[in-house]
Write a structure and sequence with these properties.
- The chain has 268 residues and is mostly beta strands.
- The protein has one domain.
- It is 8% helix and 49% strand.
- The chain contains two helices and 19 strands.
- Strands 2, 5, 6, 9, 10, 11, 15, 16, 18 and 19 form a ten-stranded mixed beta sheet that branches. Strands 1, 3, 4, 7 and 8 form a five-stranded antiparallel beta sheet that branches.
- The relative contact order is 0.18.
Amino acid sequence: MKPLLTKSLLVITSLLLSSAALAHKRWILPNDFTLSDAETVVADYSASNNIFYFDKAMPLDEVKLIAPSGEVKRMDYRFMSYRRGMMAFDIDEQGTYRIADVGGVSYFLWYKLPGQEAPIKDRGELQRLKAAIPANATDVYLTKGTSRVETFITLGAPSELKPSGVGLEVDFITHPNEFYSDEPSELKLLMDGKPAKGIKIVAVGEGTRYRDSQAEVIVTTDEQGMATFNWPMAGRYHLEAKIDEMVEGFDYNNLYHGYSLTFEVQAP
């Protein structure tokens, strides 16, 4: 893949998938990650350059609250503002809840026309997008993409989390509500249920707005898709992984898959 094309295409897919600029990271942030008693939890959904600093509100329509039993629960409150989407829900079932925005397979088109500096962008059904490409179009990128943004809240003892087998996701060897600053945390990155090897995973702790360095923790998955993290300190973190590659022999010429996780690293 050509570096300049990769950079341009990542800008395109990030804009279309997240409705935010390339550097903006999407995150769902609850007020609590672990609970000893049932309570109502409030969570924010936003995208920002600085971790957990509200910047661009993300839509709440596709966010699901999945109980430990697997039942999709009702959100008791939703509110959209300019910089954040807000949700409230009851956590009253023992075990681990998943709060997730999981985008299905989507297609995105990007191309240029002679004499026009601004590119043409569109999204929608694959065959319609293919038919919409003019004969004189250049730098045509037709992307197939998926995305997942999630976090977890546990009431009492953690419960098992099973991967869906669709898109880019994590199989948690160490439960996400049992990350500790004095212990390594293990996870397995999957793509459509199979190990995603050689993928860079980037974790960043909160407070980037108030420090000169992002202080990223970067781990590349091994042949089995495994990654082991050693956390520099306790606190709230954002983790992100992406697959962005040119392909041949398909109706599209690029694949983009994104994964985003928000979690808490606890003190010993």
